[in-house]
Amino acid sequence: MKRLLRPRTFAAALALVVPAVLLGAPAAHADPVSQTSGFYVNPQSSPAAWVAANPNDGRAGAIRSQIAQRPMASWFGNWSGDISRAVGSYVGAADAVDKLPVLVAYNIPGRDACGGHSGGGAGSVAAYDSWIAAFASSIGNRPAVVVLEPDSLGDFSCMNQTQINDRVGMLSRAVGQFRSKAPNTWAYLDAGNPGWVDATTMAQRLNQAGAANARGFALNVSNYFPTGDNTNYGNRVASALRNYGYSKPFVIDTSRNGNGSNGAWCNPAGRRIGTPTQLGGGAEMLLWLKTPGESDGNCGVGAGSSAGQFLPEVAYKLIYGY
C-alpha cells in the first residue's frame, strides 16, 4: 500500500466541496478518503460481466464506457455465500490498487418487508448480528465506505413495534461493529428519500438506530429523486439530529436520478443515470449505490425480471434517458 506516500489530493478536494454545515459533524472513524487515491471500479460488476460476455452487442460500447467503467457500490446479502470471504476479497482487491471500495450491506431480517420485491434477509436477529460482525471484521483496518441496510428505517409501515425495536437494535449494534472492528470505514445508515418519511421522524429513527456512532446517513438508495431535493432533505435531517446533541453528513445515490422521479420507484421508464461517483456535489459524496441496469424487481420496464438481475436494455435506456 502506498497511502503514506501519496499526495492527499482526494481528501483536499473533499474539504473544498463539502458544505460547512456537514464538515461540522465529527468523524466516527479515521478518514478512508485520505488513505486512498479515488474510488474503486469493480472489474467484475454485473455490467462489466455482461459487456465481457457480449462484446459484439451494439449496446456494449455505451454500457462499458458509461456504466461499467465507473465506480459503483457492490451489494452483499444472503446470496453472497461466506460473507467473510466475499467482503474480504472485494475490499482486498480495492486495497491492492489503492482505491476506496463502496459496499452495501443488505441482509437485515424482513428486508424490503413493505415493498416486497427484494424480500429475504438473515433468518433471525442473532443470525444478522453474527453476519454483520463478520462483515465488519473482514474489512478490518482497510479503508472502505459501507451503506447499511437500504429501506430499513423507512420501511416501518407494515411492521409491529417489536419488529421495529428489533430492527433499530440490530442497526445500532451493526454501527458499533464497524466502529470497533473497521476503524478506517465510514458507515452510513440508510435514511430513505425525500418522498418517504419527514425529516424530523427520520432523524428520530436514525438516532434510535445508533447514528451517533456512524459516519452519517445515506439518501435516495435505488431511487430517482433529484440531487437538489435530496440535499435539501438531508440538510433538514441533519438539522433535526441536533435535537439529540449532534449532526451528521450524508451521501446521495445518484446512479439513476438524472431525469428525477416520476413518482414510481420500481423500474420506471424514462429515467437516466445521474452524476457519477464523486466527492461533494451538495453532500459529502455522490455515489452510485444502485447499479444502473440492475432490476428493482418484477415491475415496470423490468417486468419478468428478479431484483438485482442485470438488464442490458434497461441499462442502455438509462444512458440516454428513454
Automatic annotation (TrEMBL):
Residues 1-30 form the signal peptide. Pfam families: Glyco_hydro_6 (PF01341). GO terms for molecular function: hydrolase activity. Its EC number is 3.2.1.-. The active site is at D151 (proton donor). Keywords: Carbohydrate metabolism, Cellulose degradation, Disulfide bond, Glycosidase, Hydrolase, Polysaccharide degradation, Signal. Belongs to the glycosyl hydrolase family 6. This is Glucanase. It comes from Paractinoplanes hotanensis.
